[in-house]
Amino acid sequence: MLLMHPTISPDLQALLARAMFPDPQRTAHTFQQYHQRTDWQVFAWQIRGKIVCAAGLQVEGHSAEILHIGTDPLCSGQGYGRALLQAVIRELNLMQVRADTDDSSIGFYRKLGFTDTEIPNPWNTRRYRCTLKVSPGGVSSCTGTPLWLGLTLPAPRRRRG
């Protein structure tokens, strides 16, 4: 279930921090931005009362940039990040969504129908600018794929240790 603008609790911060550079000062500054800037908005996906995924977006009209998205490691790979983004796109009536990412997450965006181009990066790693254009009716204008598939998801599977 989508949570619009949830309280940024320590658990929610931990999920968002999974997508941040691991520097305590930068992370603290970023969370201050979420509290101070009205265009920086936080959303979460909740299953059985537990927040399993969170995303921070910078929203401007019908466009948004994904600033951070993180999923509980025990719930990773179960579609909660996809469900969260699809629900946010629908609820905010977004027509375009952007994200900058690296090799570790590019597959996630490609599966959602984002197109990508490699962008310059001073840190000697590959970075990508991902863009999703949504036509009326919730269909990716790039792939023709409906964006609302899979919003009803099962409870998290228990992983065997």
UniProtKB/TrEMBL annotation:
A Pfam entry, by short name: Acetyltransf_1
Domain of life of the source: Bacteria
Keywords: Transferase
Domain called N-acetyltransferase: residue spans: 1-133
Matches recorded under InterPro entries: Acyl_CoA_acyltransferase, GNAT_dom
CDD domains: NAT_SF
Database matches in Gene3D superfamilies: 3.40.630.30
Lipid metabolism keyword on record: no
GO molecular function, one term: acyltransferase activity, transferring groups other than amino-acyl groups
UniProt name for this protein: GNAT family N-acetyltransferase
Lineage: Bacteria, Thermotogati, Deinococcota, Deinococci, Deinococcales
